[in-house]
Amino acid sequence: MSQPTVLGHLRRAVADGRIRHRSVKQELRDNLIARLKDGAPLFPGVIGYDDTVIPQVVNAILSQHNFIILGLRGQAKTRILRSLVELLDAEIPVMPGCEINDDPLAPLCRHCRDRVVEAGDDVPIGWLGRDQRFVEKLATPDVTIADMIGDIDPIKAARSGLQLSDDLTVHYGLLPRANRGIFAVNELPDLAGKIQVGLFNILQEGDVQIKGYPVRLRLDTMMAFTANPEDYTARGKIVTPLKDRIGSEIRTHYPQTRQDALAITAQEAWVDRPDADNDTTESRVTVPTFVREVVEEVVFRARGEKKIDQRSGVSQRLSITSLENVVSNAERRAVGAEESLVVARVTDVYAALPSMTGKFELEYEGELRGADRVARDLIRAAVATVFSGWLHDANVDPVVEWFEMGGALSVTDTTSAADLLSQVEQIQGLGDLTSCIGTASSDPAPVAAAAVDFILEGLYAEKKISRTDEWQYRAVEQPRRTSRPTGQVFDPNLPLPTPGKGKKNYYN
Fold it and tell me: Which of 109, 370, 441, 455 has the fewest C-beta atoms under 10 angstroms from its C-beta?
């Protein structure tokens, strides 16, 4: 069915029921109900809110409320607002060239009204897509009333010989330009108090007043806001009368399970790196599950760490950028070792420190220790947690005994898979441990090396073997055991590898 091109055809289409004429909030409500009936996803890409945040957003839309989403950084507030666009109609009729997307059946601005009076049903109409009906503004302290609502343009008045109170002298701000659409304001507390006062009328009465002149525009707009609750005292606050006029207040949260966090990071992180040499888009990167879990566990532990300021939060962006750095370090190693397959290791997580330390604020105790040391402690604790989950029933004593009998390894985060495997091939019991995490003898060398690396880092994290890092750490000697566990398999006559210098040493 072709869309009407003139006002007369549009009126007949509305009368026949072929086109629905309704407000923005009614439009959102109707389309949301249709999606609920069809079982279609409401907010694609938003994970972990199915039983908490999304039902509250749905209730706000069904109630035709303007609403505000409160949450710490990295909690998908902006993504939810932008997803509202998908609940709008594909197209709506508008007056062509109108700055405020005037409704041809009920125009607001003086110019459009005059055009309808002059041409009647022959007035041409245009069609506006849903993407053009979303206006977003990041609130900053320098925003003015003219930016948000509009101002009287004295130059336009002088050139046209009009009075300043005439409708045609208005220069419209962002809010009128969002007429018949969604107007979103991010970080609402950053708006100056007097600017927030300027939003009172649109929220309650549905109109705006410009510059003290009797110019009123009864706008049809759905308004949505975001704010960080902890910013109320740090940078500003939402004035109480404005909060009173906002229909619903919705609070977000961080992922509550590791599985939700893994899904978010897998969705957002750039991990699939193409092989430029072979001119293909197929990824040559493998990230073992235990590496992904370590990255997520670092974030979960950071959100409970007393040395980190929990009021500012620890964004999910920490795990996203960290995983990207982990893959990049693995890629750097693969290029240097001329390995065709890029496999991330747990030791690559330490190379991701630059993507971690800027993502959290430290308390006084954390400042004394330093962001780098705090992040390293988090990684070690995360590795211990994930390691115990994978190998909680495994017998690690033969491997530990190998180190206690004087064995030592010298490896770095750039050690090739072949070199690492050649150094550990004499460690009895190590093969049994790698099989516990799903690594088979037929797997490529980089995959087997990642499993070995995980076991070594896990034993170090559980303080069963020690490790030195020449750049950051001093050697830490662990006390030797005087007796061996019964039933252990260990041959003291096997030759031991020669200790060497390296970035990471595993030794007794």
Answer: 441
